[in-house]
Amino acid sequence: MNKKKMFLFSSVAGAMIFGAVFSANLNAKATEDGSNSKLQSLSKLTKTISTIEKYYVDDLQFKEIVDKAIEGLLNNLDAHSGFLNEKAFKDMQVQTNGEFGGLGITVGMKDGALTVISPIENTPADKAGIKSGDIILRIDGNATLGTTIDEAVNKMRGKPKTPITITIVRKGEQKPFDVKLVRDIISVESVYAKMIEKDNILYLRVTNFDKHVTEKAEEFIKKYPKAEGIILDLRNNPGGLLNQAVGLTNLFIDSGVIVSQKGRNESENSEFKAARANKITNLPLAVLVNGGSASASEIVSGSLQDHKRAVVIGEKTFGKGSVQIILPVDDKEAIRLTIARYYLPSGRTIQATGVEPDIIVFPGKVPQHDENAFSIKESELKKHLTNELSKIDANSDKNATKITDNKTIITEANVNDDIQLKSAIDAIKILQLK
How much is the pTM? Predict the structure, then answer.
């Protein structure tokens, strides 16, 4: 009996050893096959490069061919990955760390076209009337078809006070048209606040997410403690720092996930949650967005929407919800690589889909009845005549009508020129009734 048991144990042990050896052989075979496949692929690449170097019509250096191969590889991954050669890497560092001459325009690739995400307020692009959704067809006569975002940005950036012409394709226009601009130093006021005239509502405008956004927004909200509602305007805001998007959202909510980041590697996965101590207001909230609202703007608006903390008003956002990091190749060159995507608290992604507003309102003026149209014109006329009188006698201002300070107040006339803003005011008034 003992011999039989020993025989069975030996048989099982032998089978286990055979299984382990067989499995090891299979793994070794798989590893060998994988290595062979990689070697074959690398061989194909080197043969292609050698063939181009030998037969291509222009004399290209080996480094040029390799750089083009890397650039093509990254551009084919997605619209936001790219190769930063020595010049592009330097330009990126200048943009991050110092002043630069440019147009004040944020661009992205949408359906293969170089598309304006948004113009930045009070920059050459904004003053020239460039709009979100415009397609840049040419830069100084050079077609942008097939170009990369980095190449386009490098062409548009340059010394301040130098001219540039871009050709625009705009929805609703019959043919492309040229816009002549002059580059300037781009400096942006990321946050400012005003009160709505005749309504006790705070208008909080965030133009981009730099490192001061949360701090400044908190400062403005505390500055107006008697406000009965807040309108957060994220229109034409192309995004910026993730931690500032999280911080701004946290001012309005006290718990739960604000945004999560998920990638191929678990080390890139993370959740950003609200902290109770950081919430500062329970006031009714409306958020304005449009096609120029991207990235961090979409995180804020989408997260507040998912938490049912705000009414989102305007147009569908741009749809840029991926995470890029800069990975140096050497001291002079780097690659920008997409490593993860952002997900809102409900689990939905922003990438390519954007945030759909709760109330869709297209831009334009507030429709006026005939009886009101005259009163507005009359009011504007009185204001104009008052200004003219003050020019005649600057000292006799005792009886002059007080001119509204537009730096701190949004006038009724301003509201009537912006139906999206008017809709947000109406939404706040409805929320106040609840």
Answer: 0.71
